[in-house]
């Protein structure tokens, strides 16, 4: 085994040291202040390596990671978008990086202005009246939106409104968030293209319906052309429309959910507005509302009073959903992203996202089965290869892509197709990159016909091959001690 394929513990040699620490200059023994029940009973298992070995180890590990700066990352529905370096530089400015949430508000006016201006820009882009940037992630933004929905109905005395309509093609977090918020789920079957079946929706509408959760375009990348009918139906029973902002990339600068009749929206700043996304963070899921719901937003909220920014609680607030004012570094990056593009260029995000997705759709439809004809929006969903006789599955295609340095698209979602392959190219990928991807996909399609077994056993160039993912999920071995058992 090569040294760069070994674990840091396997490189360890007893008594080898690769660091030096300053002498303890505390005037007392800090060990005396630590309760005995918090002290270790045995020495920590740490590797013993020289500094050069340590540097090489982490440098090699970094090369094994895949990221948007490493290669094409067309993960459908998740918008794996490049984050311009200027955003990182601005977020790292000392005056922003070193701010403390408990310092006097008079000394944080600049940061509060960024928060306030970001919320106003998001309101303008989405057609909402106001935003709270406090939720830490999209799922938390969903939950906050549903808590607002419940608070609105309860204030009106409509405690019988206990049901939320969720189409069968919805994102998986939608029914989960509604359940956590205490709602009962009514699933509505979709049309073949994933759009809401109006007939089924009419049958589900009654006075117990608190609202509906949608994304537009839907999970298949198809625009809900009947959105105004849907809005009218739900509002006829005083229900609220909730917009899942995961697919906002398709509409940015060209259409606004608020103008379609949506009352509540969450936006993934770490998707649409460029902050790096994945690996558990960082995230931010601002929740926006229409005028009649403004006083239900989470606390605290930033207000501008006489050219001064203050913190206060909306009258009917759902309360705190996060510590202080959310993930401020992500907010700064989104703020920088919007100012860098400017109002005149933000409209190109939606245009180019849609153009790129349709280019891939047209380029690959002869090799990969396209179950829905016509224009898509920001993402396209194929149902495996056109030629099913080879036995090559969507999983096989995804594994083979790894050999070419391309991250696979989302696979087996949405669930409406058996071999879903969901591709989102985002707006900042060049035609050359897309053509390279198309060439590789066509090569894999040809390999499936001429040498299917080769595709079925891919990948060949990665550090590890195919894993037992079920066992890895149920019995993870994440510590070196576990490997010794």
Automatic annotation (TrEMBL):
By its UniProt entry, which InterPro entries does this protein fall under? GcvPB, GDC-P_C, GDC-P_N, GDC_P, PyrdxlP-dep_Trfase, PyrdxlP-dep_Trfase_major, PyrdxlP-dep_Trfase_small
Q: What cofactor is needed?
A: pyridoxal 5'-phosphate
Q: Does the keyword Oxidoreductase apply?
A: yes
Look up the EC number in the record and give it: 1.4.4.2
Please provide, alphabetically and separated by semicolons, the GO molecular function terms listed in this UniProt record.
glycine dehydrogenase (decarboxylating) activity
Query: The Glycine cleavage system P-protein N-terminal domain covers which part of the protein?
Result: 30-298
Entry-linked SUPFAM superfamilies:
PLP-dependent transferases
Q: Does the keyword Electron transport apply?
A: no
Annotated catalysed reactions:
N(6)-[(R)-lipoyl]-L-lysyl-[glycine-cleavage complex H protein] + glycine + H(+) = N(6)-[(R)-S(8)-aminomethyldihydrolipoyl]-L-lysyl-[glycine-cleavage complex H protein] + CO2
Question: What are the Glycine dehydrogenase C-terminal domain coordinates in residue numbering?
Answer: 351-449
Q: Which UniProt keywords apply?
A: Oxidoreductase, Pyridoxal phosphate
Report which superkingdom the organism of origin falls in: Bacteria
In-chain residues carrying the UniProt-annotated modification N6-(pyridoxal phosphate)lysine:
271
Q: How does it assemble?
A: The glycine cleavage system is composed of four proteins: P, T, L and H. In this organism, the P 'protein' is a heterodimer of two subunits.
Job of this protein: The glycine cleavage system catalyzes the degradation of glycine. The P protein binds the alpha-amino group of glycine through its pyridoxal phosphate cofactor; CO(2) is released and the remaining methylamine moiety is then transferred to the lipoamide cofactor of the H protein.
User: Which family does the UniProt entry place this protein in?
Assistant: Belongs to the GcvP family. C-terminal subunit subfamily.
User: Which NCBIfam families does the annotation name?
Assistant: PRK04366.1
Q: Which HAMAP family match?
A: GcvPB (MF_00713)
Annotated protein name in UniProt:
Probable glycine dehydrogenase (decarboxylating) subunit 2
Q: Which organism is it from?
A: Paracholeplasma vituli
Gene designation per UniProt = gcvPB
């Amino acid at each position: 085994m090569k040294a760069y394929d070994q674990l840091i513990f396997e490189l360890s040699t007893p008594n080898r040291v690769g660091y030096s620490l300053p002498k303890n200059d505390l005037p007392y023994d800090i060990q005396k202040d630590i309760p005995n029940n918090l002290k270790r009973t045995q020495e920590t298992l740490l590797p013993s390596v020289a500094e050069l070995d340590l540097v090489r180890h982490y440098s090699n590990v970094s090369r094994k990671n895949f990221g948007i700066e490493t290669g094409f990352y067309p993960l459908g529905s998740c918008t794996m978008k490049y984050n311009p370096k200027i955003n990182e530089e601005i977020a790292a400015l000392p005056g922003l990086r070193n701010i403390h949430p408990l310092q006097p508000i008079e000394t944080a006016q600049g940061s509060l202005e960024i928060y306030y201006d970001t919320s106003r820009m998001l309101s303008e882009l989405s057609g909402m009246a106001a935003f709270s940037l406090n939720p830490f992630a999209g799922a938390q933004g969903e939950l906050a939106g549903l808590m607002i929905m419940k608070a609105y109905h309860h204030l009106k005395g409509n405690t019988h409104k206990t049901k939320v309509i969720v189409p069968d093609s919805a994102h998986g977090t939608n029914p989960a968030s509604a359940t956590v918020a205490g709602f009962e789920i009514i699933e509505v079957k979709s049309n073949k293209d994933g759009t809401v079946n109006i007939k089924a929706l009419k049958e589900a509408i009654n006075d117990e319906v608190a609202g509906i959760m949608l994304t537009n375009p839907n999970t298949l990348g198809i625009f809900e052309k009947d959105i105004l009918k849907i809005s009218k139906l739900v509002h006829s029973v005083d229900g609220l429309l909730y917009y899942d902002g995961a697919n906002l990339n398709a509409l940015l600068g060209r259409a606004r959910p608020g103008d379609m009749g949506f009352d509540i929206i969450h936006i993934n700043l770490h998707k649409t507005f460029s902050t790096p996304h994945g690996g558990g963070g960082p995230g931010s899921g601002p929740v926006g509302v229409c005028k009649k719901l403004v006083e239900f937003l989470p606390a605290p909220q930033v207000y501008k009073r006489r050219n001064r920014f203050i913190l206060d609680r909306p009258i009917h607030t759902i309360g705190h959903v996060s510590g202080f004012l959310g993930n401020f570094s992500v907010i700064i990056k989104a703020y920088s992203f919007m100012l860098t593009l400017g109002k005149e260029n933000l409209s190109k995000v939606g245009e180019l996202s849609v153009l790129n997705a349709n280019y891939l759709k047209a380029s690959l439809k002869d090799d990969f089965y396209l179950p829905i004809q016509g224009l898509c929006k920001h993402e396209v969903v194929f149902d495996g290869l056109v030629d099913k006789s080879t036995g090559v599955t969507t999983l096989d295609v995804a594994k083979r892509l790894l050999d070419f340095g391309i991250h696979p698209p989302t696979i087996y979602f949405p669930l409406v197709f058996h071999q879903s392959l969901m591709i989102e190219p985002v707006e900042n990928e060049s035609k050359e990159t897309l053509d390279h991807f198309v060439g590789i996909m066509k090569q894999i399609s040809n390999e499936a016909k001429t040498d299917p077994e080769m595709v079925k056993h891919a990948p060949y160039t990665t550090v590890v091959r195919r894993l037992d993912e079920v066992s890895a999920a149920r019995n993870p071995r994440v510590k070196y001690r576990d490997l010794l058992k």
